[in-house]
Amino acid sequence: MSDLSGNHQVMHTPLVAWIGDYPEQLMIACISAKNSPISLVTVEQFGDATAHPPHNHGHMLQKIQEAIAACDPHNITSFHKVCLALHLNGVLEPFWKIWEDACPLCFLTPNALHQWHKFYFDHCIRWVTNITGEHCKLEKLLPAAAAGALPDDVLCMLHTITKFIFLAQGLFHCNETLHSLNEALHEIHHYKPSILRADGCLGKNSPLNHFQILKLELTQHVARSVHLMGAPYQWSSDITEHCHITHVKMPYCLSNRQDYHVQCCHFLD
After folding, report:
1. Which 8-state DSSP code applies to residue 108?
2. Cα-atom radius of gyration of the chain, to the nearest Å?
3. Could you tell me if residue 90 is left (phi over 0), alpha (psi between -120 and 50 degrees) or otherwise beta?
4. What SS3 class is residue 202?
5. 86 DSSP 8-state letter
6. Contact 218, 110 (CB under 8 A)
7. Would the N or C end of the chain have less CB density within 10 A of its end CB?
8. What are the two backbone dihedrals, phi and then psi, of residue 44, each rounded to the nearest 5 degrees?
C-alpha cells in the first residue's frame, strides 16, 4: 500500500475483535468443550464468585506444544485424549499464532445476545418457572412480574442479574458504570444460593446444587473487556444474526427451492 509520500509500505491489519458464539469462541481459542474460552476455569468452577486467571497468547501456544511433546499428532485417537486432558481441542496451528498482538483473551469480546440475554432466558426464567410453576416471557418485566411469588432473596438475585445485563449493554462506560457493574456482579454471587434453597435449579431427575454455567463465569470478564475494547454491545452478534434472516432465510423462502443459491444471489443484487 502506498503512503502519503508515495512510498510502498507493507501493511499488517490488526485483529481487533472476533464476534462469535460459544462454540466458535472455543474453536478459535483452541479450547475443548465445557471449558471457558477466556479463562483457565474448569466446569466445576463456573459458579465461583472470583475471576480466574485468563488465557493468553503464550500460555495457549505452550499448552499446544505440551500436547505435541506428549503424543504424536498423527496418532489421532491418542493425541485427542492428550488434548482433552489439557483442555485443548486438537488444533495445532491457530491462525492467530503469528498474527502480531493477536490474543484470544483480547479479541474474543463479550457477546450480549448469546452470553447475557440467552443466559437470562435459559436460566433465570427457568428458575422462576421451577419455583412458581408459572412462565414469564419478558426479560425486562420478570423481576416485577415475579414479585410476591418468590422469596425476597430470589427476587434480589433476579433484580441484580437484570441490572447487570442492562448496565453491561450500555453504549458508554466510565468508572462509575464499571463500579456499578462490579457491585451488581458481587450481589449476584451473594444471592445465588437462594436459587438453590428454593429448588430453582432442577436437573432431569432431581434439584441441582451447583451453578456450573459458563455464561455466569463469563460475566467476570466484562469489565476487563470494557477496559481493553470499549463498550461490549458494539460486538454483539445481533446484527449478523438479523442479516442471516434478511440475507439468507428470506431469499430462500422466496425461491422455488431448486438451484436456490443463484436465486438468492439475484435477490440480494
Report:
1. B
2. 22
3. left
4. strand
5. T
6. yes
7. C
8. -70, -15
Give the up-direction half-sphere exposure of residue 258: CA atoms within 13 A in the CB hemisphere: 1
Per-residue three-class SS string for 110-157: CCHHHHHHHHHHHHHHHHHHHHHCCCCCCCCCHHHHHCCCCCHHHHHH
Separation between Cα atoms, residue 244 and residue 250, nearest integer Å = 9
CA 36 from chain centre, in angstroms, equals: 9
* Among 126, 116, 119, 118, residue whose Cα is nearest residue 204: 126
Using pLDDT thresholds of 50, 70 and 90, give the confidence band for residue 135. Answer: low
C-alpha cell at 10: 507493507
Burial 59-69 (b: 16+ CB within 10 A, else e): ebeebbeebee
- Give dist(CA 265, CA 269) in Å, integer: 6
Percent helix, strand and coil across the chain, each to the nearest 5: 55, 5, 40
- Cβ 110 vs Cβ 235: under 8 Å: yes
Mean pLDDT of the region 222-246: 82
Residue 86 sits at φ, ψ, to 5 deg, of: -100, 5
Q: Which pLDDT score is estimated for 258?
A: 79
Q: Under a CB-based contact definition with an 8 Å cutoff, are residues 102 and 15 in contact?
A: yes
How many angstroms separate the CA atoms of 203 and 243, rounded?
Answer: 35
Does residue 257 carry a pLDDT above 80?
Answer: no
